[in-house]
Amino acid sequence: MRVDVLAIAAHPDDVEMCCAGTLAKLRLRGKSFGILDLTRGEMGTRGTPEVRDREARRAADILGAAARENLDLGDGALRTGRDEEDLLIDAIRRFRPRIILTSYFEDRHPDHARCGRLVAEAAFYAGLRKRETAHPAHRPQQVLFFSTMHYHAPTFVVDVSETHELKMEAVRAFSSQFHNPGSSEPETMLTAEKFLKEIEARARHYGQMTGVEFGEGFISRRPPRIADVLEAFEGFEPGFE
Ligand SMILES: [Zn+2]
Q: Rounded to the nearest whole angstrom, what is the distance from the C-alpha of residue 78 to the centroid of ligand 1?
């Protein structure tokens, strides 16, 4: 299965919180994307791996993912050895994405940081023909990083105003993880009612930076090529037309 974009993150729900608006927008424009979770979130305070598998499938359906897979590399101690790297390289070669979206390589949660480093390195190694796995070599054009908990200034922002609601619907599909007044499981930072508002606040922050309602920010090690400077900074502030 070939996809245009592959989103890779440590825990099922990281992709939904951080880049689902961008994925849904690509889908609306006829592009395909896949989601690859590196762990099943088994260390999460709430829910079980089976519950999170079901929630992840539902969220993928809401967003219109072409595929969602899980490499099961161990939540709370994400393994990054040679075997795990080979698994990831082979997954990248199967999906053959042009662009990979993943967690920034510095974050509060070590799994997110490890994920960012592992993915960036595997994306390069996937292009080495003599590093053999079950599928032929493929090198994505670029790896783009999103902030998970710690904030990093974005290289660019995607306007996701039209898909923000769909993103929040996909986030809420993980009902074991977020605010649920009916749950008897322990409270965490993620289950507080304000956490969903904080996801929206970050989207509004990125949007405010670029003059739209909602945005998602990405960090790139090389700058994106812009065809038209006027288009990239279109419009005027109110009162200056
Ligand atoms: Zn996470």
A: 11
**From the CA of 222, how far away is ligand 1's center (Å)?**
25
Give the chain's mean pLDDT.
95
Query: What φ, ψ does residue 121 adopt, rounded to 5°?
Result: -75, -40
Contact predicate 25/158, CB 8 Å: yes
What is the 135 CA–ligand 1 centroid distance (Å)? 29
> pLDDT digit string (tens) for 163-219?
999 999 999 999 888 888 888 888 888 888 888 999 999 999 999 999 999 999 999
Mapping DSSP to helix (H, G, I), strand (E, B) and coil, where does residue 219 land?
Answer: strand
If one counts every other C-beta atom within 10 angstroms of the C-beta of residue 42, the result is 15
- Contact by Cβ (8 Å): 197, 46: no
| pTM over cut 0.90 | yes
Separation between Cα atoms, residue 159 and residue 156, nearest integer Å = 10
Please, what is the end-to-end C-alpha distance for the chain in angstroms? 48
Average pLDDT over residues 118-128: 98
User: Would the CA dihedral through 210, 61, 103, 23 be positive or negative?
Assistant: negative
Position 178 scores a pLDDT of 80
Beta bridge partners of 37: 9, 70
